[in-house]
Amino acid sequence: MLKRFALPLVVLYTLLLTIASLVNIGGVPDLGSSFDDKIYHFLAYAVFTLIYFNYLKLTSLNTKALLLSVVIAISYGVFIEILQQLLTKTRILDVYDMLANFFGVVFAMLLVRFRKNLKLK
């Protein structure tokens, strides 16, 4: 990714994820399972982690980019769930959403680690 788009992408994705998490959005495509919401959480936070990792990798925080992106993503996910409980009437704090967020973050972290291991060989 081009360096000049890394920060705007971080800001835009964070803003969109915040809005999508705090407003009542209808018309989300049905995936045909009883846990569609958790799949969306998993994917959203995997992408969130990868976007932050890519940005941090381009900064002076390069050596700790993966750790920082994981900490940021998990913290943000918990923060958003708390805000849903406090600020909205249509959303609630859901531990299972936090777990889905966590597993999305872990998946992204494993993807990054696996990719690094492939490059080393």
Automatic annotation (TrEMBL):
The keyword Transferase does not apply. Residues 38-114 form the VanZ-like domain. Keywords: Membrane, Transmembrane, Transmembrane helix. The chain crosses the membrane at residues 38-56, 65-83, 95-114. It comes from the Bacteria. InterPro entries: VanZ-like. Pfam families: VanZ. PANTHER family: DOMAIN PROTEIN, PUTATIVE (AFU_ORTHOLOGUE AFUA_3G10980)-RELATED. NCBIfam families: vanZ_1. This is VanZ like protein.
